[in-house]
Recover the amino acids of this structure.
């Protein structure tokens, strides 16, 4: 019999089938990774959800640094579209945050013909004079690389002229195969010119950096609250609520916590080589995952007081949510979900849903690499293709003056097997037989997955959100949380469950069929299942 | 683009060209679009359109990579077309270019030909190339570029069909539905291009179809070439991209381009045009018109409150401007992000006509603007309502001006696709939204405003009530209505050139000794009761002493209208004392106008508190608006506990001055800006300063001469002549009202500008007076001075050789009969140049006498009878003599 995977791939012909077949995997055994093809060029014409290199660099990694001007060099569109589009909240420095601004050189036709350097210089000057940023990040868009504007020399000039840090990022949209390339370029820039230049020394040994936390709907605020309550000091946060000086001092922390493995693992790896700082793959999304993370952190720092405090805080927080947790577990248990988010984040929400007894049956990533699916052990097997090789690979060396190890080699080796230290196990190991995993998913595949797996709710982005809703499945946006959140740690998990419950039980789902129609408004069993859900609740 | 910047776009009021192109393609039946470029373009556009329309938005991408930029993207595009056709089975595909494709010079038509050649079975799919690089415009231009691409690439059937082409720009699906209903109701046979009514506002139906099923079909479009007339709803798109113009040039179809039908007259025009073309106007539509007119009349009383900021795509903006103007809502700040020819030319006459009725000036109409620019325009024109897309919400929040969301994008609320503004009903819906927003705003603050303006002054005259209120811990914040501030300005001697300066007196309270900056021309450790210049005082008062002094002065000087704080340091560096003094005096006399002068450094901290205190007039000294120049003027600035020097000092000071000025002006505080003219430093920069401060809301500037003070860094700086200062004031007068009569007063000056009697009110003098009056004998103040002050009329500076009445200047000396000290030269014409400048009738003699009002005697060659009597009446002895100055002065002093 044709498997569900084969049904999905059936719609493709010839070359497209050949290309897509290795991106779609149906697990044959519980918790066992299978090889998947990832981080390859998308097939033109399929309704994919990937962004571009510029999006990863400007939109994801640099954009959330709240006291820097991130200046888009190019025509207006790219500047407009990265204007605070993700919902990364920033606390504001002295009541001011540059995140709510969009800065662009707004290139016109004549600039494309005669070059935009002059315009860029003046724009940097104006940005510095008016906004007094801590730094200016110049981000290139497609035409800039093609017309050959030398943004590097402009950055150098600006740094000398104004005495303000100015870094250029050649993150033209066509580079790489997705936004992932942009993450890498941004990571490189921060590593080369920012990290290691600061002097904000933490005051406790339990000092950490929070990497790959986007602070969507205040996620990082809640995480920071828990960490601070236990006695950790958050030296810096990357990719959400970022502050330039804090990032510059990141090398003074004792442990890096990696939340989103995809966008920021480069920095974690490079800091390990250069400064000797270990990194821990954490997950603050999900109650059990938060507990695991907190315990692993305590194990790393190996301090009795810290361990005791960790348990106290866990108990304290659990006590507060236990009633709600039980309630929503009862309401949601047994439901099935689909999740398509980002390059590492689907895994997080899968864990969170598992807390409430919801199984994820369909999932995938837009721009993940193989290690995000299968675990870091596959990294040596990944062959770099031309698209990846075109992105600069930094090989930092040990910085003798600043290199230090927080734990000795014996302790390190002993811990390595026990906790996710310098390691990420990937998503597949948490999935059951029969679950579907799609890399670089597109609209047709999503539609098929919906009808084959019939999830009760689908977590995704805005682009496929309305298509999923039209097909009769409740859908939630995970890039903005639909203006809700936070979803991290203990209380966040309850917020998430509450929102999910509301979506599944929205009264509208019960009203799909007009009284004069005896048939459901939707074909097949999708409409029926929605009605069933409604009746269940009623 | 904001007015501060030339190259930096801060918060764009526009999206990109391909977005518009794709939007238009959503009005075509069974059409898919593919963007030839990086995949980010389609992702971003899908994301933004999906948020606005709350519908699935499918835009394919040719997913160009680095390799494609080198070798061309033909293979990518061909593969993209193949997949798109296979997955969606469209009848039409629009291939829109992006910056990338256009920059590498892709030949889209060529690629499409190649595609057809190698894919025979795809020939039934109409593939349309559209040139839409982001650097060639905004979504508005992109929309029309797509329409143009469509009409130029569909093979036209030119057989006359009697239909009318209706072409629209970007209007909402709901308005498109209205348009179709209207055309049907008028029995017009039409072809609508595009028709986004279904595809961008679909229902939740039985089955979701990935391929858009609504919209205008290619078959219908093919008949546009045989239509009898074209109506294009929109007037701003260039003729080179106008489908109507193309159809006329190619097929000879006559056309009209009309405003989008928003507002009574614009809808009338459309209906009338359709009627001329054979349509009938049914009763139902006439009723709609009547209802709309009735609504206009019902709400006209409230609409006139509106000062609207309108922003977005040009045609939308014009529609709203039309609606506003005919309802008496004044469009004061009107911008578009497009570089739009004719925008200002078309809209200014409309807006100014509406503004003229209510005497509103300074209307701002600009194309190629961003939100930073809009904000500036709104501040300048005191806009109180915003109409435009969701991106205006930041400005709305910042300026606390309500925003009525319309246009693209609406992404912070739902329903952008269902908004209505067209037709009588749509106009009515929008008008109601505007008027109701204005009404709710009005209701929110009306009680308080009315209470403050009319009731508060009443109770403040009742000390019992006031103190009772204060005792209960009531907020003592005061805010004055704008009208009240105008009246106060007229009674303020320093802010008017009119009669005020003679009629009304002011007193400066030296309550602020500390300063937070060091200007190179300033020295505050000088203390002479007879020196008159800013920064000088003989004593520092506590807030309580201020109150006492105020009471004393007020008793003797009923025309005292103004209490000012002018140092000797900076008022805001001594804020606690200043605020206490102001509160005490306001309690004593609520009618007093408070003014204050500051360098502005601490304004960002204290501006609102000043307003709450009831300070209505603020003088800011801004000598430069360029930190490079500022750095030469200021030695150092102490801010938040850190001392800065050089350009960073000047930069901090400047930033705070400008933001402070903006804030105060926004809150209707009357701001005067003082500028000290410093030769070789800022004399060529003053014009720029004046322009800048005007832009931010200053009402008057006062360009002053430098008084070189011994010991200050600018001691040696060359003097600025009266002529030079007047020339500078004249030059700058073009931009902003100039103060011509500044006396550069002391920090403890008292009296009218021309007559400083502060010496009368010094602590020890007051004490002596007290004593004297207790002893029953009032002594004249001059006698209490140890030294005599004498004025000398001289031409050569050695001899008393000048007639009193012809004296252009006096030398002022002090002497006790044995010692003699030169004080200063006083120029009779220093402060006033007569009627044409001041508009007052002070005659020359009075001015001469005023110049020496504080002297005990005046020595001149000769003196007429009239001045003699006048001088005697003022207690000044006049001595006629011909002698050398030293001898004569000593002799006269000894004899006094």
């Amino acid at each position: 019999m044709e498997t569900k995977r084969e049904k999905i791939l059936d719609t493709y012909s010839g070359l497209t089938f050949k290309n897509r077949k290795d991106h779609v995997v149906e697990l044959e055994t519980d918790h066992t990774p299978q090889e998947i093809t990832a981080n390859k060029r998308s097939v033109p014409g399929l309704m994919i959800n990937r962004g571009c290199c510029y999006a990863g660099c400007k939109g994801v990694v640099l954009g959330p640094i709240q006291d820097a001007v991130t200046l888009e060099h190019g025509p207006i569109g790219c500047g407009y579209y990265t204007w605070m589009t993700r919902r990364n909240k920033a606390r504001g420095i002295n009541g001011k945050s540059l995140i709510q601004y969009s800065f662009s050189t707004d290139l016109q036709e004549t600039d494309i013909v005669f070059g935009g350097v002059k315009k860029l210089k003046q724009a940097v000057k104006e940005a510095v004079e008016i906004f007094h940023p801590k730094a200016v990040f110049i981000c290139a868009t497609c035409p800039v690389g093609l017309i050959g504007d030398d943004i590097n020399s402009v950055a150098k000039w600006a740094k000398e002229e104004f005495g303000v840090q100015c870094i250029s990022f050649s993150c033209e949209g066509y580079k790489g195969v997705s936004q992932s390339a942009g993450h890498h370029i941004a990571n490189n820039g921060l590593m080369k010119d920012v990290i290691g230049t600061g002097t904000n020394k933490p005051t406790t040994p339990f000092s950490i950096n929070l990497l790959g936390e986007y602070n969507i709907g205040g996620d990082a605020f809640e995480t920071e609250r828990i960490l601070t309550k236990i006695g950790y000091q958050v030296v810096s946060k990357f990719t959400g609520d970022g502050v330039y000086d804090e990032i510059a001092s990141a090398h003074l922390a004792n442990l890096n916590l990696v939340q989103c493995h995809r966008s920021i693992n480069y920095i974690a790896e490079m800091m390990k080589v250069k400064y000797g700082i270990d990194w821990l793959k954490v997950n603050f999304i999900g109650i059990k995952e938060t507990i695991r993370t907190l315990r692993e952190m305590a194990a790393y720092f190996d301090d009795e007081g810290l361990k005791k405090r960790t348990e106290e805080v866990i108990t304290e927080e659990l006590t507060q949510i236990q009633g709600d947790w039980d309630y929503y577990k009862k309401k949601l248990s047994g439901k099935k979900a689909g999740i398509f988010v980002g390059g590492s984040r689907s895994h997080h929400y899968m864990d969170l849903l598992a807390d409430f007894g919801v199984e994820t049956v369909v999932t995938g990533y837009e721009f993940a690499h193989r290690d995000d699916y299968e675990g870091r052990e596959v990294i040596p097997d990944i062959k770099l293709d031309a698209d990846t090789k075109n992105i600069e690979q930094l090989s930092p060396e040990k910085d003798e003056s600043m290199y230090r190890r927080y734990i000795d080699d014996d302790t390190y080796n002993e811990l390595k097997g026990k906790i996710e230290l310098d390691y990420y196990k990937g998503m597949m190991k948490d999935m059951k037989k029969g679950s579907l995993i799609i890399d670089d998913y597109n609209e047709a595949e999503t539609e098929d997955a919906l009808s084959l797996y019939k999830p009760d709710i689908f977590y995704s982005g805005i682009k496929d959100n309305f298509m999923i809703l039209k097909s009769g499945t409740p859908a939630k946006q995970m890039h903005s949380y639909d203006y809700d959140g936070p979803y991290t740690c203990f209380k966040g998990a309850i917020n998430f469950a509450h929102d999910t419950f509301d979506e599944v039980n929205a009264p509208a789902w019960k009203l799909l069929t007009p009284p004069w129609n005896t048939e459901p408004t939707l074909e097949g069993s999708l409409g029926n299942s929605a009605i069933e859900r409604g009746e269940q609740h009623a | 683009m904001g007015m501060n910047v030339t190259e930096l776009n801060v918060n764009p009021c526009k999206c990109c060209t391909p977005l518009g192109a794709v939007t238009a393609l959503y009005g075509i039946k069974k059409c898919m679009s593919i963007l030839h470029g990086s995949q980010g373009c389609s992702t971003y556009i899908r994301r933004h359109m999906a948020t606005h329309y709350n519908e699935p938005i499918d835009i394919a991408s040719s997913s160009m990579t680095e390799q494609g930029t080198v070798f061309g993207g033909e293979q990518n595009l061909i593969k993209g077309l193949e997949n798109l056709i296979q997955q969606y089975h469209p009848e039409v595909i629009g291939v829109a270019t992006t910056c990338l494709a256009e920059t590498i010079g892709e030949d889209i038509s060529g690629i499409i030909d190649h595609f057809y050649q190698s894919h025979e079975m795809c020939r039934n799919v109409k593939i349309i190339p559209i040139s839409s690089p982001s650097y060639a415009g905004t979504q508005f231009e992109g929309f029309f570029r797509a329409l143009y691409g469509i009409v130029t690439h569909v093979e036209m059937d030119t057989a006359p069909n009697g239909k009318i082409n209706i072409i629209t720009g970007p209007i909402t699906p709901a308005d498109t539905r209205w348009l179709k209903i209207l055309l049907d109701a008028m029995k017009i046979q039409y072809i609508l291009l595009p028709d986004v009514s279904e595809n961008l506002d679909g229902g939740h139906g039985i089955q979701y179809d990935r391929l858009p099923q609504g919209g205008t079909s290619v078959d219908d479009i093919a008949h546009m070439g045989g239509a009898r007339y074209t109506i294009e709803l929109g007037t701003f798109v260039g003729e080179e991209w106008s489908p109507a113009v193309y159809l006329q040039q190619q097929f000879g179809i006559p056309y009209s381009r009309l405003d989008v039908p928003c507002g009574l007259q614009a809808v009338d025009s459309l209906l009338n045009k359709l009627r001329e073309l054979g349509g009938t106007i049914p009763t139902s539509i006439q009723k709609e018109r009547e209802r709309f007119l009735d609504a206009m009349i019902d709400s006209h009383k409230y609409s006139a409150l509106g000062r609207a900021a309108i922003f977005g795509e040009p045609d939308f903006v014009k529609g709203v401007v039309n609606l506003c103007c005919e309802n008496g809502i004044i469009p004061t700040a009107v911008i578009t992000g497009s570089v739009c020819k004719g925008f200002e030319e078309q809209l200014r006459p409309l807006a100014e006509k509406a503004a003229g009725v209510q005497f509103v000036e300074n209307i701002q109409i600009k194309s190629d603007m961003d939100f930073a620019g809009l904000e500036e325009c709104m501040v300048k024109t005191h806009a109180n309502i915003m109409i435009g897309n969701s991106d205006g919400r930041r400005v709305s929040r910042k300026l606390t001006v309500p925003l009525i969301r319309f246009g693209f994008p609406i992404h912070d609320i739902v329903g952008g696709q269902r908004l209505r503004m067209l037709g009588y009903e749509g106009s009515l819906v929008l008008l109601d939204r505007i008027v109701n927003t204005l009404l709710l705003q009005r209701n929110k603050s009306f009680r308080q405003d009315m209470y403050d303006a009319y009731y508060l002054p009443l109770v403040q005259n009742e000390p019992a009530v006031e103190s009772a209120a204060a005792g209960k811990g009531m907020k003592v914040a005061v805010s004055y209505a704008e009208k009240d501030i105008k009246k106060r300005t007229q009674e303020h001697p320093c802010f008017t050139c009119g009669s005020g300066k003679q009629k009304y007196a002011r007193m400066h309270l030296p309550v602020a000794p500390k300063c937070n900056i060091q200007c190179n021309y300033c020295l505050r450790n000088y203390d002479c009761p007879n020196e008159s210049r800013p920064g000088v005082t003989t004593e520092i008062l506590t807030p309580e002493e201020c109150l006492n002094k105020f009471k004393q002065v007020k008793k003797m000087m009923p025309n005292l209208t103004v209490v000012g704080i002018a140092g000797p340091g900076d008022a805001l560096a001594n804020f606690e004392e200043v605020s206490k003094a102001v509160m005490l005096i306001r309690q004593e006399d609520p009618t007093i106008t408070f003014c204050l002068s500051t360098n502005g450094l601490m304004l960002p901290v204290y501006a609102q508190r000043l307003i709450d205190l009831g300070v209505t007039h603020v003088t800011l000294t801004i000598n430069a608006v360029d930190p490079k120049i500022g750095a030469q003027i200021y030695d150092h600035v102490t801010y938040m506990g850190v001392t800065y020097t050089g350009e960073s000092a000047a930069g901090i000071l400047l930033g705070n001055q400008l933001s402070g000025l903006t804030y105060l002006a926004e809150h209707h505080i009357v701001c005067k800006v003082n500028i000290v003219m410093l030769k070789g430093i800022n004399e060529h920069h003053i014009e720029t300063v004046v322009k800048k401060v005007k832009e931010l809301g200053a009402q008057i500037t006062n360009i002053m001469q430098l008084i070189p003070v011994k010991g200050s860094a600018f001691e040696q700086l060359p003097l600025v002549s009266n002529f030079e200062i007047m020339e500078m004031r004249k030059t700058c007068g073009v931009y902003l009202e100039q103060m011509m009569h500044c006396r550069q007063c002391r920090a403890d000056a008292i009296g009218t500008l021309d007559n400083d009697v502060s010496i009368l009110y010094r602590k020890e003098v007051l004490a002596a007076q007290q004593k004297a009056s207790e002893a029953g004998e009032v002594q004249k103040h001059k006698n209490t001075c140890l030294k005599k002050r004498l004025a000398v009329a001289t031409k050569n500076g050695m001899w008393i050789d000048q007639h009193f009445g012809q004296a252009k200047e006096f030398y002022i000396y002090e002497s006790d009969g044995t010692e003699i000290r030169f004080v200063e030269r006083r120029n009779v014409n220093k402060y006033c140049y007569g009627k044409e400048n001041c508009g007052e009738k002070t005659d020359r003699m009075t001015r001469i006498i005023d110049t020496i009002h504080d002297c005990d005697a005046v020595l001149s060659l000769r003196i007429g009878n009239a001045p003699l009597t006048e001088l005697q009446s003022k207690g000044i002895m006049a001595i006629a003599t011909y002698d050398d100055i030293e001898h004569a002065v000593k002799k006269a002093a000894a004899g006094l």
